[in-house]
Amino acid sequence: MESILETADWWVLGGYLAALIAVAVWVVLQKNKNTEDYFLAGRNVGWFVIGASIFASNIGSEHVVGLAGTGAESGMPMAHYELHAWIVLLLGWLFLPFYFRSNAFTMPEFLEKRFDSRSRWFLSVFSLVGYVITKVSVTIYAGGIVVSELLGIPFWYGAIGIVVFTGAYTVIGGMKAVIYTETLQTVILIAGSLIITYLGLEKVGGWEELKLVAGSEHFNMWRPISDPDFPWTGMLIGGTIVGIWYWCTDQYIVQRTLAANNIKIGRRGAIFGAYLKLLPIFIFLIPGIIAFALAKQGVLTYEKSDEVFPVLVKTLLPVGLKGLVAGGLMAALMSSLASVFNSCSTIFTIDIYKKLKPLTEEKKLLRVGKLATSIVVVLGIIWIPIMEKIGGGVLYQYLQSVQSYIAPPITAVFLLGIIWKRVNSKAAIVTLFSGLLVAAFRILAEIYQPYLSGVLLSFATINFAHMAIFMFIFSIIVCISVTLATAPPNYSAIKGLSFGTLTVEDKQLNKESISVIDIVLSVFLIIVVIAVLAYFTG
Fold this sequence. Notes:
Elements: H1 7-30, H2 35-40, H3 47-58, H4 61-74, H5 79-82, H6 85-102, H7 107-114, H8 117-151, H9 155-204, H10 207-214, H11 232-249, H12 251-257, H13 263-277, H14 280-296, H15 308-316, H16 321-356, H17 362-387, H18 395-419, H19 425-447, H20 454-461, H21 464-485, H22 504-513, H23 516-535
Helix pairs in contact: 1-9, 1-16, 3-9, 3-12, 3-13, 4-8, 4-14, 4-16, 4-18, 6-11, 6-13, 7-8, 8-9, 8-15, 8-16, 8-17, 8-18, 8-19, 9-14, 9-16, 9-17, 11-12, 11-18, 11-21, 13-23, 14-15, 16-17, 18-19, 18-21, 19-20, 19-21
Protein name: Na+/glucose cotransporter
Pfam family, one: SSF
Transmembrane segments: 12-29, 41-61, 81-100, 121-147, 153-172, 184-201, 230-248, 269-295, 324-353, 365-386, 398-420, 427-445, 465-487, 516-536
């Protein structure tokens, strides 16, 4: 296997990596004085950096590789997940004020303050397991594909190489290194992907020619309810349930907004991140459809859909630009990996180790966080061979499938906990535990699907997005039932952590954090989302 990069490309790629190292070194020289510095960048980050970091940590290798692959394979239906920009607004306007008032480092810590320590323990372990079987394994797998295609080296060399490089600057620099390098990576990634999209459209013959060659079905987001893969009900409703979990309750994303020093800055960062979130449809999904059209025209070939984006780089780009886009792809890989590394480290250190040993000194906590990151990476690598048995073997579908099973109980507990003060700790823990059992049962059913029949086979083959809806309804019923059957919580202990327990001062601070420009930008973004949904109907 030969590298597709020539001498000029290597210089461009080397320049990018040198800039990345320079930023990481600058951050290291600033020193992380304590865990707040290491895990939340000292809570002193501006809205632009927060928004760029939200985008960069979301748009990882699973998007570059997986979304382009899904675009080539199935067309536009997965765009529903990319239109979750409006849910990022929900983070800024609904959830963030409660998180700030709690003064929590992590989402499990917030659950402890809202419910009890059992909820914190449960979500901590649940989150770490979820990271291993989704974000860590998926990102390393996609990284192996990209690096092996671009540099002409074996898959596992590429995967492990990218892990070592990223792990080094994450472990040394902490959240500050992650956030500031992500800002640089966001610029590189968007520039590289825009170039691919432009040149691809030019090669096909323009937008109208692309629609003609690819066919109307590839441009239809609204597949029938009976569609086995992408029913519109599942994409719209099930996707929203997963979206609220991912964007509003997951440590991976929320940690970025908590790095702000007040609600207003955090919210504005979320709004900026929401606008950036609109880009993936046009710079990752559409290139996948372009590759599908170019394959029909005989311009290029690919064996697996997950190889589409690297093949586009190989086929379309001139010398020099290949190096720039290779830098963009590396940026995506390292950005999402770095984010996962830091989130895992934070959850393990703050929510598990510090709870067990509360008197541990700050320096030792930092060392424990670094060790935890290394262990999670190893477990993620071990999980990779199992991934192909879930989601039809297509990377992005695997990711959305697993997330559809783990999201509903967490979404239900956070939403009801904030909206309804009556929800108590017993309801939270029973909902989370029963949801985990159903999720584990479904994942096992998919893995062993060839050996099942009857009711078990039906359970294993329900569309993943419809499964999210059923699990969410189940979780809501469980949570409400247990709440009404047990005693209410101590409302004075959860002051400011639910709408029903807000004080006059809390309401006044909320009011002061709202600005007209933020409202206008939020409304305009919702209009854009509706316009995109209306356009892609085939």
